[in-house]
Design brief:
Pfam families: Glyco_transf_92. With 447 residues, the protein is of the alpha+beta class. The chain has three domains: 91 residues, no CATH class; 264 residues, Alpha-Beta Complex (Spore Coat Polysaccharide Biosynthesis Protein SpsA, Chain A), CATH 3.90.550; 66 residues, no CATH class. It is built from ten helices and 24 strands. The chain has a seven-stranded mixed beta sheet with strand order 12-10-9-13-18-15-21, sandwiched between helices. Strands 1-2-6-5 form a four-stranded antiparallel beta sheet, with helices on one face. Strands 4-3-7-8 form a four-stranded antiparallel beta sheet, with no helix packed on it. A hairpin with a 2-residue loop joins strand 23 and strand 24. The chain is globular, with a radius of gyration of 22 Å. The mean pLDDT is 92.
Length: 447
């Protein structure tokens, strides 16, 4: 839960939190916030973003709560409306991070064993001026986790554990597993936590690790976004189209080279149905994975024409063995190559900085060169999830429906959240996170 002293959208002395619950939760429940000075206010509860296509099939969703509290509060108590007793122990309030120009919010990782596109993204966003990059870890290979901790130590990223919402007590109480009833792997909770954490940023880019926003109209991302802001002074966000991209990279970290990976890219003419957004927090309350939500009045969403810029969706990456050769994209059509954005000198500079900072470290050299999960996930999605999407009774894109076998001698780290339950009133129970811990396994990753 975050405390905002003077926020353009949330106002003065406001405590804001992200919570998940039954889709009808706000319709029949009211929560009271008790400040330390004795004042009480009712929490305003709303969806963090309007339900998107297919999400209305889910029984569980994500909300944002806001309540007025005593100025400079560091904690509060919660209760149900009909129960004035402070039924929940102290909920401590955090302050958002200091003001920065650009924060990058990644969706959470799960069963992560391919690191190539993630490394390219981190390096490019660092090079082009991202102030901080926030990642959330659900599950994946220990080797990749160790590399990300190295990036965090260097101040380039912030890495938080982000476990699934799993509680045997809650499942028994509800009669169903909410992991099967919350859309898109609870992705929206992670990115909205990031959005609250970096509300003091001038711009927030909401992105996946295989998506690259590279500036064309400025030397860095801030210059380009400032330019778009000057052209569109009433903008609350900028939406960029996405185009699928093919590229090659080596499996072996000792052979991996950012320069050759970038120069192998072939941007297709296939445009995704939905783009991705850079959001202005001072004019926006929440975010979906593709767009902002709950905007300041008299502001507007600005769609950036692809002739000005668009996002490279580097989702079709081929991993090569040591004896294979990466072939550069030498097309005369510059628009289909990385040179639509970068000169060869820039590509070389990005590669040199990566080599100097990361490539020769043990964290990078020890990365895995064997891969198990991406193909399994793609198979699951194609053979099962795409069929489930057509049904009206099944929540969408949830890999808990798939079976992933144990894999011996594959070290993985997963995040696990521990909860404590509190009864706010007879028919209202709140599960409060007590901590998130690392769970190691030598038999592969869990979803």
């Amino acid at each position: 839960m975050y405390y905002f002293d003077d926020d353009p959208m949330f106002g003065n002395s406001t405590a804001v939190s992200i919570l998940s619950g039954d889709v009808n939760f706000p319709n029949y429940n009211e929560i009271l916030c008790h400040s330390s000075d004795g004042t009480v206010s009712q929490a305003k509860i709303e969806l963090v973003a309007p339900l998107f296509i297919g999400e209305n099939k889910c029984q569980w969703t994500v909300f944002r709560s806001e309540c007025r509290v005593e100025k400079n509060s560091s904690y509060l108590y919660l209760s149900g409306k009909d129960n004035s007793k402070k039924s929940l122990d102290k909920v401590f309030l955090k302050k958002p991070e200091k003001a920065v120009d650009l924060a990058v919010c990644y969706g959470h990782s799960f069963m992560l064993d391919e690191w190539q596109s993630l490394v390219v993204a981190i390096e490019l966003y660092k090079f082009f001026g991202a102030s901080i990059q926030q990642l959330y870890w659900r599950s994946g290979r220990v080797e990749i986790y160790n590399l990300l901790k190295k990036y965090e130590k260097d101040g380039i990223i912030k890495l938080d554990l982000f476990g699934p919402t799993v509680s045997n007590e809650l499942t028994e109480m509800l009669g169903f597993d909410i992991q099967l009833e919350i859309s898109t792997r609870n992705y929206i909770t992670a990115i909205n936590d990031c959005f609250l954490k970096y509300r003091n940023a001038k711009f927030v880019l909401v992105i996946d690790s295989d998506e690259l926003y590279i500036p064309r109209l400025g030397t860095n991302l801030i210059d380009e976004l400032n330019y778009f802001s000057i052209l569109n002074p009433h903008a609350n966000s900028f939406v960029f189209e996405r185009y699928d991209t093919f590229s090659n990279a080596y499996k072996n970290p000792l052979l991996f080279n950012i320069e050759s990976t970038l120069m192998s890219m072939q941007i297709s003419t296939h445009k995704r149905n939905l783009g991705k957004s850079v959001v202005i927090p001072s004019k926006t309350k929440g975010i979906h994975q593709h767009f902002g939500s709950y905007f300041k009045s008299n502001t507007n969403v600005v769609s950036i024409p692809s002739k000005l810029n668009y996002i490279v969706h580097n989702n079709k990456i081929t991993l090569l063995n040591d004896n294979e050769t990466i072939y550069f994209n030498t097309s005369k059509d510059k628009n289909s190559t990385i040179f639509y954005w970068l000169s060869i000198e820039k590509v070389n500079e990005i590669n040199r900085l990566f080599n100097d900072r990361i490539k020769n470290t043990n964290s990078f050299k020890n990365l895995n060169s064997n891969y198990f999960y991406k193909n399994n996930l793609l198979t699951c999605k194609k053979e099962l999830l795409e069929r489930l999407w057509l049904r009206d009774d099944v929540c969408i894109e949830n890999y808990d429906y798939c079976l992933f076998e144990k894999i011996s001698n594959v070290s993985c780290l997963s995040a696990k959240i521990n909860y404590k339950s509190y009864k706010l009133k007879d028919d209202l129970v709140m599960f409060k996170k007590t901590n998130t811990v690392e769970i190691y396994s030598s038999n592969g990753c869990t979803y």
